[in-house]
Amino acid sequence: MISLSMTPCYRGVAKWLPQRMRPQRRSTSEDRLGVVSGKAWATTSPASRISDIDTVDTLPEFPCVSSSSTTSAGDTDAAEEHEIEQRMADAASHVLPWRLQDWEVVEQLQEAPRNQGCVVLAKSLQHGGVFAAVKQMPNTWVAASHAEFARQHPESAERPWFDVGVVNYLHDRGFEHVCRPLGVFRDTFSTYVVSSYATQGDLFSWLPREPEQGDRESGILRPLMQQLFEAVRRLHDLGIAHNDLSLENVLVTQEDPLDAPSIKLVDFGMASLARRDRGFSGKRSYIAPEQHEEGACDRFLSDAFAAGVCLFTLATRSYPWDSTRPGACKRFQFITKHGLRAYIARKRIRSSSDVRLAQVLSFDLVDMLDALLAPQPQARACMGEQCFKDDIVSGVRRSALSMPWLSA
């Protein structure tokens, strides 16, 4: 048996695990795009990976899992800060000992450099061989509670206990687009945050995929993006802005071979409970341009911008720009001046081809991208949140969930 505490970033794969069941490794680095950028518009059709790994419906109750919410699912009242604080406190006070003999590591799923750790796929030997995702972080970083972490790391954008609290809160509210929290464990050196395993990797790993039937827009993009947009809308209606949406932070799971894949949002360490906030957070290609300006900005619209970057990247297998920081990227400067439609009309699908993006993207998809990636937030589409209801009804702002591409 291989111990997590013995190998903080274990990179091996258990020989007994069939190749089709081995998860995609994930990295938070945007440099991962280089892996597939040379394969843009490939005609390969890899089979959909259907995993028979135990999923959330078959997970037994772990001893540290509890739900203290009395709010009914579907309630769209704003999330109360004290409820998340209570869940952070509950998680910190119910940390269980990490028992080496209870787990067997299968593979590293991703590095977690901002939390000084990694995420691995592990097999629970005490719960019928159930697979779970285990995020391992050093105790010197995590600290014993959110309050202690805040004292030790007052400038940190990452907040591991806040991440735990938000996920527990969302799970208690019946928000189905998070991985099921299974508890927090600790040994002498590390803290382990355990959750259900998303069997199909992150959205980044879907970049090279082609559908088994039909075109890529209808077979892959539309079903996944409709779920993502709906998940973001519901998150915002609960009063939470994610602030770090990216392809790497959207996981895909398939609980049954006959079910459609479903998406899960992860990494809420940068999330905020204030719709308007200062500063910027997230990965450089996904940061909305207004976050680089002075003053507070609408974080819900910033999330919409990041969702648009996810859609563009998944559709074209390339980022629209390297950065939205003023003067940092010529492509973003061109789009700011001439518009995204002009960029799509000129951009080749790859350097060796004369085919332009406008020739392979549908009109309705380009319309969606243009609305979500508007550099000015006042012109940007929203996700149909309740707070934008009056703007949507009056025609001042469009809702991405009501646009033609999603209903095609």
Task: Present the secondary structure layout.
Layout: H1 34-37, H2 81-93, E1 96-97, E2 103-112, E3 117-124, E4 130-138, H3 139-142, H4 146-152, H5 160-172, E5 181-186, E6 190-196, H6 216-237, E7 250-253, E8 262-265, E9 276-277, E10 297-298, H7 299-316, H8 330-338, H9 340-346, H10 357-360, H11 363-372, H12 389-394, H13 404-407
Parallel strand pairs: 1-5
Antiparallel strand pairs: 2-3, 3-4, 4-6, 5-6, 7-8, 9-10
Q: Low-confidence stretches at least 5 residues in length (pLDDT < 50)?
A: 6-30, 34-61, 63-79
Order of helices and strands: HHEEEEHHHEEHEEEEHHHHHHH
CATH architecture designation of the largest domain: Orthogonal Bundle
Q: Quickly count the domains.
A: 2
Alpha-beta content class: alpha+beta
How far is the N terminus from the C terminus?
50 Å
Quantity of strands, as a count = 10
CATH class of the largest domain: Mainly Alpha
Rg, Å, rounded:
21 Å
Our estimate of the beta-strand percent is 5-15%
Overall pLDDT confidence:
83
* Largest sheet composition: 6 strands, mixed
According to CATH, the fold-level topology of the largest domain is Transferase(Phosphotransferase), domain 1
Percent helix range: 25-40%
Shape: globular
In DSSP terms (H or I, runs of 4 or more residues), the helix count works out at 13
> Strand order of the main beta sheet, please?
1-5-6-4-3-2
- CATH homologous superfamily identity of the largest domain: Transferase(Phosphotransferase) domain 1
